[in-house]
């Protein structure tokens, strides 16, 4: 489906409280480490798509986009990077489910889910009142994205309803971020990413259902 509010735009200027765009657009990429999961993902490729491919034809200089990428993400590491980096956008790549996105447990040898309530708490602890954009490019993440937008913790969110395969996640990321860095229109970003992802089918032979949400608050 289309984003919940297709008329809602995501202009780059809206990333800042001022009328002009921020001096630097800060994008935080979270990579679930594949060393402790059963099905490795193409995290290096997805990171490359967001950080390199999508900035080739950006509407503003590459120097005005700052990327920070972290792997082997624990709850404490995520809290630290949110607080220090203060991102405008968070892109999550890796495994997920309806219970939330998968993080590394403090012991380092297993995984634990981070749900919408946990993410909201981390954003609050990092003094991020409302994250402009959250992209959960993980299986089963639509519920988490919807909850965070509905409660006003994020202005715009993307999630996946059901399972996805690497090719779908990569194509969505490319279409979404290329469009964002050109036009900044959230609905257009979502539509272009979804269009590319529909070229592939998941392991069940189905087209993956990407969903977009915009907060009413």
**Helix segment tally:** 6
C-alpha termini separation: 21 Å
The secondary-structure element order is: EHEHEEEEHEHEHHE
Low-pLDDT residue spans:
1-19
| Extended strand count | 9
Describe the strand arrangement of the main beta sheet, using strand numbers: 2-1-3-7-8-9
The assigned structural class equals: alpha/beta
- How much helix is in the residues? 25-40%
Note the main sheet: 6 strands, mixed
Shape call? globular
| Percent of residues in β-strands | 15-25%
Mean pLDDT value: 79
Please compute the radius of gyration using only Cα atoms.
Answer: 16 Å
Summarize the structure.
By secondary structure, this protein is an alpha/beta fold. It has 6 helices and 9 strands; from the N terminus they run βαβαββββαβαβααβ.
